[in-house]
Structure formats: C-alpha cells, structure tokens
Amino acid sequence: MLSRAPSSSGGPRDVSDYGLNPEIFTRLGQYDAAFHAKALAELVKLAQEREIRPEDDPSPALNRMIDLPHPGLRSNALTLAGLWQATATGPQVLAVVKDETQPIEVRSAAFRALAELKLEPAGPLLASLAAGPHALPVRAAAIEALCALDIEAAARHAAELLPQAVATGLNPASILEAFLDRRGGGKALATALHASKMSPESASAVLQSLYETGRSDRDLVEVLRQSSGVTDDGPPYTESYVKQLVGDAMTQGNAQRGATLVEACIACHRIGKLGAVIGPDLTSIGTTLSPERIAEEVLWPGRQVKEGYTMLQVTTQDGVVHHGYERWTRQSEASGDLVMRQLTAESLITLRRDQIVSRQTLVSPMPVGLTAGMTQQQLLDMIRYVITLGTNTSTP
Ligand code: HEC
C-alpha cells in the first residue's frame, strides 16, 4: 500500500508534494487519516536517518494535522514539527503539551517538539510535568524530552521516578535511552542515582532494562551494580579455567534448566523466535563456535569482539550521541559520511561528516558481570544450554 511512499525516492520535493498533501490520502472523497499517519511515520524515519526535510515551510500543513482527531497522525505531525524545526507550529504544540485529555503518545510527541523547538517556557514547563502529582507515563515522557534541554534537571527527576517506574511495571528502557542519547547523559544520571541511594531491587531491575538498550554505559552500570549489591566480576581469564568450566558444564550442567536462565541474554540476542538484534543470533551458536569460545564470550565479553559488532559512539553537533556498528556503503565511501547500523534495529543511519564532533570506539556492548548473580550450578546449566544450541542434543 505504501509503495508510492516518499521513502522510495525521498528527496525534499517528494516530502512536500506527497507526504504533506491530504489529497493523496483521500479515497473516494474520504480522507484516510490512518494511511496518512503511516506515510508521516516514513517521513519521520527519513528526517531521522537521512536528515531529509521539505523545501517550503511545512508548518501550515502540520498545524492542520495536529488539529485532526487521529492520535497517530497527530503524534507523527508533532514529531515532524520538532525534527523539521517548524517554528510556526509553536502555539499548537504548546496547546497539546498542556492538554491533559490527550493520549500519552500524542502528549509525549508534543513534549519532544516543545524541547526541540525550544519554545518558551520549555524548560520550566517540562520540569513541572516531570514531577508529581502527574501520572508516571507523563512524568517519564517529560523527563525524556527535558534531556534535550537540561540534562542535570532531567537526571534529578529520573532518579526519583525510576524506582517508582520499576515498582509499577513501567519499563524504564526509553528513559535510559533518552539520557544515553545525549552528551554527558550517562554520567549525569549515574551521579543523580548515586546520590539517591536506590534499593538493591530497583537497581537490579533498572540494570536489566539498561542491558535491553544495548548501551551498558560504564558509569551507569557501575552505580547500578553497586546499588544492587552485585559487584563481583568473576575470576580472571585463564585457559585452564575455561576448560574446566566447559567440562563441568558437560558433566553437571542441565540444558533444560539452563534454558530458563537466558532472560538477560535475549535482551540482545535472538534464540529461536525470541530476542533482539543487538548481538548475533545465537539460535545455532553451538554449531559455529566452540564450547570454550562460548564460555569465554559469556564471562569475558570484551576479550574477543565478533567482527562487525565493535560499538561506535558518535556525538554530533546537536549534542546527540549515536550508538551503533559502523557499516560501509558505496555512497558513504564516496562522501566520507558515516553509516551506522543502529543497535536495536537493523536499519542504517547516515551521519554527515561535517556534523560529527567526536567518535569513540568502545568494546563489545555485551556487559561484563552478567552471570555475577548466578550460583555455580546455574552458570553450568546456562553454559550447557548455550553450547548445545543448534546441535542435536539441544532442547527446542
Ligand atoms: C547488552 C547486550 C548483550 C547481552 C545482554 C548479552 N550479549 Fe552476548 N553479545 C552481544 C554482542 C553485541 C555480541 C557481539 C560482540 C562480541 O563478540 O562481544 C555478543 C556476543 C556473544 C557471543 C559470541 C557470538 C558469536 O557469534 O561470536 C555469545 C556466545 C554470547 N554473546 C552469549 C551471550 C549470553 C549467553 C548472554 C547472556 C548470559 C549474552 N550474550 C548477553 C551483546 C549482548
């Protein structure tokens, strides 16, 4: 249905000719807002991944859509208002920010637009929305937006919110990402969390969410591990220890029990139908990697990093920190721009060479100390399970 979507050609002209024109989304005299919302989602991607913007001021068209009742359309239009710096949408953005009857997806898009457009009084307004008595999802969305304006204030509010979030089952991964996407964000949040003295239970729940984002920021991991009371890095690497561990896993480990212990792993790896794409697919890792190398990866992830998975952290002029794996395309080689595979998705983003302020190569995103909370028997069970994945002896 979206075969004519702007992503197929994707120049600035298409954006205004096609994506913002309601007639294109009108069938038999009936405007299809859901269809239009999908097209706007493509425009959001183009703006984020390739910095494509319309040539003419898109504000009037966006204002019309922000006024329509379809939540998906409204939130995508608000997101575009921020990304495209469509300043003439200001009054409408502010109205949605203040409207408590709006669904959370629409409001959080308005919060982000407010911050990106730097509308007065964005900072104080978001700070007040980040605190009680507002509902947790509203506070979370306000904190995420505030990260773009005042990272320290955002961190103080997050330190207060995070324990409440994990206690009520709200996954804090997107809050954590909002910090890690900003220059100095990991450090600011780590400092605020350190001062707030979280309970061990909250700290380990937040740590698990941090792993899910694939960005085991060193300062944050350190503070969270300390607060959770798990600080043991395990024994130093030796070849004989690895041999012994694999031997013990084969004689004393139970793969079926081990299968229930890989919850932390599927935050990043696919195993069968479950899991994510931050790390390589482990579904049949037992047939491609030796048991010793698998044990080594699990306990000392930084020792050998699989090709293509060295994490790059790139800061751009706007203060945004991008994480991903560098890829080389013919286009990027010609232009000198940087192409990265995003961590949590397989899609590519392009960062223009002149926008890049600094780049840093980190080791594997796979964190150390993943098995620190396990008993020796659990460790053997888990290793047994992973080294038999894809082999005939594996459990399905
Ligand atoms: C935060 C994300 C993350 C978590 C959590 C994680 N991994 Fe990884 N893992 C990676 C990444 C990225 C790589 C590739 C880079 C490298 O080799 O270190 C990797 C590599 C591996 C490899 C080597 C794969 C290959 O093809 O060479 C194994 C085996 C592995 N992980 C097992 C595990 C197990 C078992 C767990 C759970 C105890 C786990 N990982 C948890 C991100 C993660």
Essential attributes:
alpha+beta, Cytochrome Bc1 Complex, Chain D, domain 2, two-stranded antiparallel ribbon, 19 helices, 9 strands, 9% strand, disordered N terminus, binds heme C
Describe this structure in words.
The protein is of the alpha+beta class and 396 residues long. It has four domains: 1-120, no CATH class; 146-231; 239-304 and 367-387, Cytochrome c-like domain (Cytochrome Bc1 Complex, Chain D, domain 2, Orthogonal Bundle), CATH 1.10.760.10; 311-361, SH3 type barrels (Roll). Helix content is 50%, strand content 9%. It has 19 helices and nine strands. It has helices spanning 12-19, 33-50, 59-66, 71-83, 90-98, 104-116, 122-129, 136-146, 151-167, 173-180, 185-196, 200-213, 218-228, 239-252, 255-258, 285-288, 291-299, 330-335, 376-387; strands spanning 26-27, 30-31, 270-271, 274-275, 311-316, 321-327, 338-342, 348-351, 356-361. The strands form three sheets. It has a five-stranded antiparallel sheet with strand order 8-7-6-5-9. A two-stranded antiparallel sheet has the order 1-2. The longest helix is centred in the first third of the chain and has 18 residues, at 33-50. The two termini are 37 Å apart. Bound molecules: heme C. The site of heme C (HEC) has 28 residues, from helix 17. Heme C binds at residues 211, 214, 216, 262, 264-265, 267-269, 278-280, 282, 285, 289, 294, 297-298, 301, 305-306, 309, 364-367, 370, 386.
